[in-house]
Design goal:
Elements: H1 2-29, H2 34-66, E1 78-80, H3 87-108, H4 111-131, H5 135-140, H6 159-165, H7 180-183, H8 187-198, H9 204-216, H10 218-230, H11 232-243, H12 248-251, H13 255-274, H14 281-296, H15 306-316, H16 322-339, H17 343-356, H18 364-379, H19 381-401, H20 408-428, H21 436-439, H22 441-444, H23 459-476, E2 477-479
Antiparallel strand pairs: 1-2
Helix pairs in contact: 2-18, 2-19, 3-4, 3-11, 3-23, 4-9, 4-10, 4-11, 9-13, 10-11, 10-13, 13-14, 13-15, 14-16, 15-20, 19-20
Length: 481
């Protein structure tokens, strides 16, 4: 009898401790009451709107007085140009349909159906936004201007020789110096379009289609990552915000959308490997590493995506995929180095080139905070409110890391904050003064899922708050590059 009483007491104690732990986790995962949290969300959105307003007003004053901002409509690289286009009715239709039906459909569709619908709708959204500027100006010509990659396709007839000679044409003043975007990126970016040309998909139209279709697949990578790290419920709630990303204004059409997708799939494959949600985790990890290596040869600044990759490993509480990931990541650097291209030499020459041009004129004191205003416009107010919620989860999430008892919302919060750290590092570097609405797309992508932390019943309002400014920008301004 005494033994039975002791056993019963032990079971009661265990149940009490389990309940206490669950309660603590629940409290940590919901650090604010609903009413206060909603007020704080609105305050964060209002402050973000004030930041954008200040960047516009102060930017116009500085630009009119000194001309040093080197943009016509600060803080965006854009000019005033109210217009409509063939994409206008399509963009409005996509926006209305996703706002009206996106949240319930995302909750009910089979998972694979959701992924297919998200990719298709994201592609339609980006294309329709690009077509607001018309087919020729908004799509076909975008990647053929004097700054772009397609202007140098004929100089890559002998690819190995061009790679060996690549660094000799980065600095302004050298004979045959590269256009701005070619000089400003490792040769992987240009080689993408060289190879498209080689297989018969040459010209601005095919390059644009590649960037939009591949770039839109970043939505799938983000959804898969959120699902395996933070649960399917949050991934489904994030889907409409990823699909209607305000960054579509610049993703259609720019190579940075393509860069964002490559980086995103690197993260997704590592997440699948780390959580062992695939049959061959080591292969997935090596594939993620291979894509990360390619990412670093698409844009010099995307090594900062390492912060998001590290967050994946921390959340999965494993280092098992590190070795195959690193082996995969070495493939591209080794191949380029053997071909005669030195990444570090090219980067240092790029810094020199950057300060020879607008980067040497644009004032850091303005852009270090105005860049964030650009990020607000490209990510949207829903992402701003979601990032605020992520920050509120951070203390409890860090504490829960010790035990591994992280709630799904805490997991998503840490992933989002890792991307924010990468973005802030890029900002403080001074190598992204202006044009960050386009350049930072690989980082901004990972802020969008934070909107899943907002109350589900408010999703449509937050979608409207993010989409309307994007539509206004695309119809009132002619955005650069």
């Amino acid at each position: 009898m005494k033994t039975e009483d002791t056993t019963e007491d032990t079971e009661n104690t265990e149940h009490a401790e389990t309940a206490k732990s669950a309660k603590a986790t629940h409290q940590a995962a919901q650090p604010e009451d609903d009413a206060r949290a909603r007020r704080h969300d609105l305050t964060a959105a209002a402050l973000a709107a004030l930041l954008v307003t200040a960047a516009i007003l102060i930017g116009r004053y500085v630009q009119n007085r000194t001309g040093t901002l080197q943009v016509q409509w600060p803080p965006l690289l854009a000019s005033w140009d109210p217009h409509l286009g063939p994409g206008t009715p399509a963009a409005l239709t996509v926006a209305v349909l996703v706002i009206a039906y996106g949240p319930p459909l995302a909750a009910r569709l089979p998972w694979r159906g959701l992924l297919a619908a998200a990719w298709a709708t994201s592609t339609a959204w980006v294309f329709s936004m690009a077509l607001i500027d018309g087919w020729y100006r908004g799509v076909e010509r975008r990647l053929t201007t004097k700054h772009e990659y397609l202007r140098v396709i004929d100089r890559f007839d002998d690819i190995p020789a061009t790679l060996r000679d690549f660094t000799n044409h980065i600095v302004i003043g050298e004979p045959g110096n590269w256009p701005a975007h070619v000089a400003g990126h490792p040769p992987g970016a240009t080689l993408t379009f060289v190879w498209l040309d080689r297989i018969g998909l040459g010209g601005g139209a095919w390059a644009a289609i590649w960037c939009v279709v591949v770039g839109s697949s970043a939505v799938l990578a983000a959804l898969i990552t959120v699902r395996v790290l933070a649960g399917e419920r949050l991934a489904r709630r994030a889907a409409p915000f990823l699909v209607l990303a305000p960054a579509a204004v610049w993703a259609g059409v720019s190579a940075d959308g393509y860069f964002a997708a490559v980086a995103a799939w690197s993260v997704a494959l590592l997440a699948l490997a780390a959580t062992r949600r695939v049959r061959f985790p080591a292969v997935a990890a090596a594939g993620g590493g291979l894509l990360f290596g390619w990412t670093c040869y698409l844009s010099y600044g995307l090594g900062l995506m390492g912060a998001v990759l590290l967050a994946v490993l921390v959340l999965a509480r494993t280092a098992r995929p590190v070795v195959p990931f690193l082996l995969g990541a070495l493939v591209v650097p080794v191949a380029f180095t053997l071909a005669g291209f030195n990444w570090w030499t090219a980067y240092h020459l790029l810094v020199e080139r950057y300060y020879q041009g607008a980067g040497g004129v644009r004032p850091y004191a303005y852009w270090v905070w105005a860049n964030l205003a650009c990020a607000v416009l490209a990510a949207g107010l829903a992402a701003v409110a979601g990032v605020r919620r992520s920050a509120s989860y951070a203390p409890g999430a860090v504490q829960a890391l010790r035990t591994g008892a992280l709630a799904p919302a805490q997991r998503l919060a840490l992933l989002v904050l890792a991307a924010l750290v990468a973005l802030l590092a890029a900002d403080l570097s001074g190598m992204s003064k202006a044009e960050t609405e386009r350049i930072w797309q690989p980082f901004l992508l990972w802020l969008l899922p934070a909107a899943a932390l907002l109350p589900a019943r408010t999703a449509r309002y937050w979608l409207v708050a993010s989409v309307v400014p994007a539509l206004l920008i695309n119809h009132l301004l002619w955005t650069g590059w």
